[in-house]
Design brief:
2 copies of one chain form a homodimer. Chain A folds into 2 domains: 3-66, Arc Repressor Mutant, subunit A (Orthogonal Bundle), CATH 1.10.10.10; 72-223, Up-down Bundle (Four Helix Bundle (Hemerythrin (Met), subunit A)), CATH 1.20.120. By secondary structure, chain A is mostly helical. In chain A, helix 1 packs across helix 3 (40-52). Chain A is elongated, with a radius of gyration of 22 Å. The first copy, chain A, has helices spanning 3-17, 29-36, 40-52, 72-84, 91-106, 108-115, 121-135, 141-152, 158-174, 183-202, 205-223, and strands at 56-59, 63-66. Chain A binds chain B through residues 12, 15-16, 20-22, 45, 48-49, 51-55, 66, 69-71, 73-74, 76-77, 80-81, 83-84, 86, 95-96, 98-99, 102-103, 105-107, 157-160, 163, and chain B through 12, 15-16, 20-22, 45, 48-49, 51-55, 66, 69-71, 73-74, 76-77, 80-81, 83-84, 86, 95-96, 98-99, 102-103, 105-107, 157-160, 163.
């Protein structure tokens, strides 16, 4: 084990044994060197790795803090993995969409249970915005992501929201590599969000699943066409 | 943008524009400094972050290579996130098991389709080993992971195998924090693997789902009991 990996384990142990939470301050670099008995360069190397994993956050002029331990590292890896995929087709992006579709379908029961008969002006607002943008031929990835995140918010298991969000991010970062979607596809996708929410509010799991499926249809179709050559 | 993040993007772009694959060699540190016009310390910092994300691999005395871009960073984050979870109960581990159960259930159709009527001495071997170890009161996480990995191997979408494997790893790394499982639970779990495979071979999706569910039962029960205090 190198000095840097010893330092990394020691910093993680420090966070756990002191019951620290995301955002809590960590000791200074000098204090860590002294406490752990390792060199300053090893502590620096360890901190850089922990920052990459979102376990530590460095705020300039303020010091080090416990990070958000988000899914961001996974998203970066997945996006890169997608871009690395062999061949110049959309295979890896199709895999991501396939995972999203299956997760949405697997969570249909819970989502419908959570939203049955439940009004929510925020969700309605996202859909209104999407339809408005779609009518102008504009895309709406921000509202789209916010919609899906809010839809999963009531679920007791927050890992789902993180997972879906991570796959959503992969998707958003790789979609710009494709041709721009057609105007009618943007409108279909916006409308499908409303159908999803309405089905959930009626408590109709099957209709919710169908609307979810429909909401991916233009994307699935675009991904089955050949990929344009890389610039 | 700092010099290090410029260097990081440049290295990623280099990998993509040269169509490199995992395991392919990268230019030396000096060549990267010269080509990208950034300092050696920035390149080093960038490389450390990329190593943490498993995008670059450093082999001592051999140089730098494109990494495996695995789910390892996600696993590290998830394990740590689980340990950080508020309260001294098993809530975060229950969430992980919940995700595994839902994914297994969502993939039941595809798994059964892949294995219907298909003999496989390797899978049978894993189960024999599990049952043998269980009879001696020993656990079998290695064979367990190998079993699940092989079960998903025939699926066209390899992201599933990576996801399930990542959640499996989270699980294995956090389970040692719990009390040792009872001997009869180990035997039940080993047997349930055989039932899963037999159901898949018969082409019986419902029986496969039931066996999968049963295979998690001892764990779900253990996770619903109060957590022992941290050492």
């Amino acid at each position: 084990m190198t000095q840097a990996s010893t330092a990394m384990s020691a910093i993680k142990d420090y966070i756990l044994s002191h019951h620290l939470r995301p955002g809590d301050p960590l000791p200074t670099e000098s204090k860590l060197c002294a406490d752990l008995g390792v060199s300053r360069s090893s502590v620096r190397e360890a901190v850089r790795t922990l920052v990459a994993l979102d376990i530590v956050e460095v705020r300039h002029g303020q010091g080090m803090f416990v990070g958000q331990v988000s899914m961001r590292p996974m998203v970066e890896s997945l996006v890169f993995r997608g871009l690395l995929a062999p061949g110049d087709d959309y295979a890896s992006l199709r895999d991501v969409v396939d995972v999203r579709m299956t997760l949405d379908s697997a969570l249909a029961d819970d989502v419908v249970k959570a939203w049955k008969g439940r009004p929510d002006p925020v969700l309605d607002g996202y859909i209104d915005d999407m339809e408005e943008l779609a009518a102008e031929g504009k895309t709406f990835s921000e509202q789209d992501q916010a919609f899906h995140a809010r839809l999963l918010e009531p679920l007791a298991n927050h890992l789902w929201a993180h997972l879906i969000d991570a796959f959503w991010a992969v998707h958003t970062l790789t979609v710009p590599l494709m041709d721009a979607p057609a105007a009618e596809d943007i409108i279909t996708t916006a409308k499908a969000h409303r159908e999803m929410l309405e089905a959930a509010r009626r408590g109709d799991v099957e209709a919710y699943r169908e609307a979810t499926h429909k909401h991916y249809a233009p994307l699935v179709l675009a991904l089955s066409s050949p990929r344009p050559p890389r610039p």
